[in-house]
Amino acid sequence: MATALTILMPGLDEFQVVTRRRRPGRRFFGNRLLGQFRHRIEPDINIEQVLRQVLDAVIAIRNSPYRQILYNGLAESLSMLDVDVIPEIVCYGLGNFSENRSAKYQLAALLTMKSRYRSRVHIYDPIFFPKEIEVLKTLGLIIIETNEEAKRKAGDNITLFYMPHCYKGLVANCIYANWGEKINNCILMTNSFTEMSDDIIGDDADLRDAVELIRRINPYTSEIALEEKFDAAREAFHCTSIHIFPNELINNVPDGFWTPLAAAPYHYQGIEHGREHNRD
């Protein structure tokens, strides 16, 4: 028989945790979300415990200066885009938040934004454990069922792409998918474009193509750096910025700038390219 736990948090959505019976022996990845890692053993995850840890992280952010820094950065971005809502948030590359402290706080920031703007949130990472997916569903997030390689195109309304500490190739793929004047419907919250543009390009073709594309769009990007005033897990938000593409900048691109690109800069090769940093 299923049991239920309701957790109320002032100013946030109400979350109901439902503990379901699980069929014995299902300890391996075996669905189409995580097919590439079907032989990876799932650790023993207590769903209620992880959920409480995530909600504790939400409270920690709410009680820290970082919440207002985040709110101010988003408000400034929306003002420059002349909108006041974020209907859709798409999150890629969050990582195993049941194990990784930084990922847990990054998820907490995502939930904080969801609550603030009442956004629909879509999320994907090929390394999510099945029980982590259950936690995300309980929190009201929509699981993306295929590996899009971050090549989702924004619609006619604002979409915030939340890609904390994501590999440069995935960030560049998102830019590639939205290449054109309608890129101003995108907000990218990820590692600083300015810092990525300064990276030395090595022999990795994916890295080279990705950095070149980020360098190409960077002059037409407005970047709002988010200070790291969050003592509980400063590394979780290290080098994070909000990036927008306001009309006053993209209207000044040279002729031929939006010529369709031949191919995406990056194709998914494995687990090691999911996140740029793993400091925990």
From TrEMBL:
One term under GO cellular component: nucleus
Domain SRR1-like intervals: 86-244
InterPro entries in the record: SRR1-like (IPR012942), SRR1L (IPR040044)
PANTHER family according to UniProt: SRR1-LIKE PROTEIN
Annotated family: Belongs to the SRR1 family.
The protein, known as: SRR1-like domain-containing protein
The species this protein was found in: Microctonus aethiopoides
